Amino acid sequence: MTTLPPVTPGPAKSAALRLLVAECFGVEVPTFQGEGPSCGHPALFIRLSRCNLTCAKCDTTYTWDWTRFDPRRESSKRTVADLVAWAAPSPVELVVITGGEPLLQQARLVPLVHRLLAAGKRVEFETNGTIAPSPELLIDGVRFNVSPKVHGFGVDEGKSVVPAALEAFSASRRAAFKFVASSVGDLDRIAELADEHQLAPVWVMPEGTTARAVTETTRVLADAVAARHWHFTTRLHVVAFADARGR
Description:
Layout: H1 11-16, E1 18-25, E2 31-32, E3 42-48, H2 71-74, E4 76-79, H3 80-87, E5 94-98, H4 106-118, E6 122-127, E7 142-146, H5 157-160, H6 163-172, E8 175-181, H7 184-197, E9 202-206, H8 211-227, E10 231-232, H9 236-241
Parallel strand pairs: 3-5, 5-6, 6-7, 7-8, 8-9, 9-10
Antiparallel strand pairs: 1-3, 1-4, 2-3
Helix pairs in contact: 3-4
């Protein structure tokens, strides 16, 4: 019996691939990347629907919590061609693909990313670090903000910490590791994970969905983060726009 090689979709078929999208924003009302290494950069956002974790402190539960939200209202199927047509005319260079957990759909993201790069964009993924990146996404113009969730974020680390995936991101040299922290105790756990899996650079982000909470947590963490010589990021969209959707 002869085994035939897999058929690679041509450009037309790739453009017709559909992704489950929660929302796109940054074109009609401009905004910034609010977190991590590109904090403050003008950005467009493609937020994909669905997640493989159920974190108690998640601030985008409308992408996965169907006990509280209706998936038919909170998500839609959009083609690669449609998403590129939305992003390409904008003068903004940075496209952030986030979620939910975007890498659940990474096979369909490959043609999207390639077409965005061809349109002169650069791409950042916001991922929880539980799914190893496809080699087809480890290319110039693509970066990963990997945010493993520790126990203090209200999640079972048996699900949220996947060593093989974290080590794949580390080996790619295309990732920064951005941890949400609420307490100095969280920093101790972050240090353990960073040492165990060789995660660098480490960025710490204060947990909070109001400007006051972000400021208070920043003051709790700042000295301890500085002492470890890690990077520190605020949540600019929370401070500037009160965590409004679409900003």
